[in-house]
Amino acid sequence: MLHHNFTIGILVISSTILGLLLWPLIEYTIHRWLFHLQPPDNSPLLITLHFGIHGLHHKVCVILSQSLANIVNTDK
Ligand SMILES: [Zn+2]
Prior knowledge:
With 76 residues, the protein is an all-alpha fold. The protein has two helices and no strands. The chain is flat.
């Protein structure tokens, strides 16, 4: 039983480390090659969908970084 628990523990720890190493690569690949595809100009549905799953991601990042800059930059 102790040996079994040790094996499961090693599996959990090694899977977690592998996931942490692989995730940035997978996220970058999906983002760069899928989310940056341009939707066709004549499809409001695809334009809206693209903005909903990707455009907001960039908008929120810009708003957060501007807010943080305003908080940090006190000499304004
Ligand atoms: Zn993007």
